[in-house]
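call fold(seq) -> tokens
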Amino acid sequence: MIKSVIRIAAIALAGTAAAATGAVAQVKLPPAITMTAYDTGTSGFNITVAIGKMLKEKYGADTRVLPAGNDVARLQPLRANRASLSAMGVGAFFAQEGLFEFATKEWGPQALQITLSSVDCNGLSLAVAGDVGVKTMADLKGKRVGFVVGSPALNQNALAMLAFAGLTAKDVTIVEFASNNAMWKGALNNDSDAMFGSTISGPAKELQTSPRGIFWPALPHSDKAGWERVRKVGPYFTEHNATCGAGEISKDKPIQMGTYPYPIFTVYGSQPEAEVYMLTKALIEGYDGYKDNAPGASGLAVKTQTKNWAVPVHPGAVKALKEAGAWSEDQDKHNKALLKRQQVLAAAWDDFNKGNPSSEPAKFKEDWLKVRKAALAKAGMADSF
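ret:
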């Protein structure tokens, strides 16, 4: 009820400002905003905290950041209307698609949409403890690789990195942890050898300064076959030169690896356009107030936003991007196609559940994935999974 009143007040203020100026509205935010992010110390959490500080100083909005160890936990408060924004990773794509941990009766495909996202000097890949002697991805054969329960993004990303060398989960020993931070602590405690993450995350720097040290195996961009294997497992990855982060990474010593936008500030499509517009506009106008306050935050610059990605941009964010001169007809066409994809997935999900699916989780997931694949094929839409 309180959240609804705040949203209504924000919408009313936005409308009043727009009417008063007759053009671009001034940013008006509710007095309190809740966001979710990965565990404390991760780059996504640190960036979100930096943004919260800016929102307080510039707009007087108190921001609460809820840390969560996996994608499901990050999305739950947003889904329950207890948060306005979630600093997601590629889990936003998996949730949209109804895949992995979202291929359950409790979830299914989610109509997620995005505002701003970051691509900066850091890279995203498998970090390896420096004392295990790994120099290439192929050297990970037989080593212990960390997975996080309930986090399809981290787990699928780790598999995508292994695929570069033609390795699969069967070629390594999977060690499961309860959260992202627990996975990195596992490396510190010599319970695992490798885990997926950002080169600029706090846990990566902690591993660097530990007795084990840290090493990032390269994914040479010239290896076209390797990158083709990566994209079969993680179609959202792009080649990237990492120039900052834990270990010997710098502008003078870049490492060829991969990336995708992270964090991706995510909302639900059902959230009011005026609310999302104001949040996005605040991120754009307040950029100078947070860009230097957390590693990776500068990647949220409006002019460097990733175009035509895998999840649609919310209409409220589109409005803010248009005002900033950072939207094109090509993006609009791509965005409408993604919104159509979400409609196809939602219809397939509804039809599937009307058919009294199995209550046994594995069978439920298996049958849903078949229905999903058929629905996308009928609509002429790609299905990388």
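The CA atoms of residues 155 and 190 lie 19 Å apart.
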